[in-house]
Amino acid sequence: MALPEIPIGESVETAVYWLNDYLGFLMDIFSEFIDILITGFKDGLLFLNPFVFILVVTVFVYLVSKKNLKLAIGTAIGFLLIENMGLWNLSMETIALVLSSTLVALLIGIPTGIISAKNETVFHIVNPILDLMQTMPSFVYLIPAVIFFGLGNVPGLVATIVFAMPPAIRLTNLGIRQVPLDLKEVADAFGTTAMQKLVKVELPVALPTIMAGVNQCIMLSLSMVVIAAMIGARGLGYQVLVGIQRVDIGQGFEAGLAIVIIAIVLDRLTQSLTPKK
Amino acid sequence: MGLSGSGKSTLLRCLNRLINPSDGHILVDGEDIATMDDKELRDVRRKKMGMVFQGFALLPHRTVIDNVAFGLEIQGISNEERYAIAEEAISKVGLKGHELSKTSQLSGGMQQRVGLARALATDPDILLMDEAFSALDPLIRSEMQDELIELQDKLKKTIVFVSHDLDEALKLGDRIAIMKDGVIAQIGTAEEILTNPADDYVSEFVAGVDRTNILTANNIMKRPEPVVSINSGLKVALQLMKKHGISSIFVVDPEKKIKGILFIDDAVQAVKDKRTLHDVLVTDVQTVAPDLPIKDIIPMMTDRNSPLAVVNDKKKIVGVIVRGSILGALAIQEDDANGLT
Asked: Which chain B residues touch A192 with a CB distance below 8 Å?
């Protein structure tokens, strides 16, 4: 005799539609917010002439990376190549998407990481959710994202945020937990409040680990905004998608190369911002 | 002091409730720390107690001065004021000029000076020092101990110093509590613990200690008897010496202040020559204070055939030391050492 099938799929479907019907207005507000964020970043990035922008970015990278000349020159060459391939606007759009999703992911992820480091109950709730978020194939996020937010940049970004947030939470949690006991005792012994202990001792000591989480978050964002092109996110991902649909090797490769350049620059830049342990 | 696992660090952490005591009271100035709420406890930790840690526990992202100013910063004291106070604390521990160094650039000894300065900066009444010098190498450790003693002479704070090193405890402690299995086995001065151990554990513990460093003239001197008054005659002195079978006698004034020493040969000769006590009195006598360690007395006794007078700060004779007394004290130490093996 066959066991009755547990309707997992239907239940999730029902839940998603219920959320959409009754909490749709919240989604609309969120959607609005995300849209403003992306547009803001995009307009900002496209405000300057590409060559001026490249100059500004190169100087910026040189200064914040503590005078890493190799990184600065590499950044300049990479961005010039992007401009040369005619992918400037698309690249800036992709960077805008990455920055927006990273910002939101960190705004949610870092506080969640801190709370789950402090509270075992929260940790035990958050941890399996993170497992789920990280192991679920990323394409699966795209479906509810479309239902809630339609097609375009916003659902793409929401899927990206969900995908990119776990390392920020995990590594913040880990960093705070790894603060040596005697440093926590120092904070307590000198009479800190919980907030002072967090801001003056735990976060600074955990910073290298948290920055590793930020780096991961950016990298995952970048990989996901490309996939999010499938539900209408713009930028280089869309270019890759078009390349696949038309079997246009050249177009696909150029867009892919631009993504690689952006990834390397963002990765090295965040790494050089990380204080050495 | 106690061996590892004896509960000494736990007890120390109960004092500022880094570990919450499950029972009992912690009274400081009549107030029970064990029952304080968070806010009161924070106040005590900020103002009354400072702590120095075994592994230094300096904040790695801060410079020396920002580490030292940490406690003041927590109290919300303005930048200008707290840096001024921190400067002062830094110079107290001898680190002037290192204010802006990264703590990782400093040696262990210097790092612990920063730890000490950090605890001193808030000017607490009580300093809790958890094996503060254990992580330092022996030479630096000894140096730091000396400096702590010197500093304490000026500061006069209550210092609770946890140590597993008996020599350190004996050197630093005014009163020493010896702990075993979470219980204080004995509490007292170094001398009390050495001369009168409360139980077998304590006596075994202190068996290996070099007593010549701890025991003082006070512990080994005999009662100053007999002495002869400066107003008595030579005959009285001679009779006393004969009666007690001694070859010399201390001469004192009516207030028992030491005037000199009289040797039997001189006295006999003087009686024959019809001279007085004053004529043959040796006024240049070597005296020692009651708190002088035996270690320093031994060399004085080696080439001397008369007893050593122990006098208090008013020059009044309080005891005498003969060779036998020192040998006796050392013999006890040998016995203890043999008993252990």
From this structure: 42, 74
Which chain A residues are closer than 8 Å to B70 by Cβ?
Answer: 186, 190, 200
Name which of A182, A183, A190 is nearest B74 (Cβ-Cβ). A190
Token pair recorded at residue B71:
């406690």
Q: Is A269 helix (H, G, I), strand (E, B) or coil?
A: helix
Give me the half-sphere count of Cα atoms (radius 13 Å) on the Cβ side of residue B226: 18
Cα–Cα distance for residue pair B246/B146, rounded to 1 Å: 43
- The DSSP H or E segment spanning B183 is strand B183-188
The pLDDT value recorded for residue B341 is 38
Whether A205 contacts chain B with CB within 8 A: yes
- Residues pairing with B258 in the sheet: B252
Both tokens of A76, joined, read: 């300049």
Give the pLDDT score at B239: 86
Residues of B in contact with A182 (CB under 8 A): 53-55, 57
Nearest to B163 by CA among B149, B177, B181: B177
| ipTM field | 0.77
User: For A216-251, how does the pLDDT look when each residue is reduced to its tens digit (9 = 90+)?
Assistant: 999 999 998 888 888 888 889 888 888 888 988 898
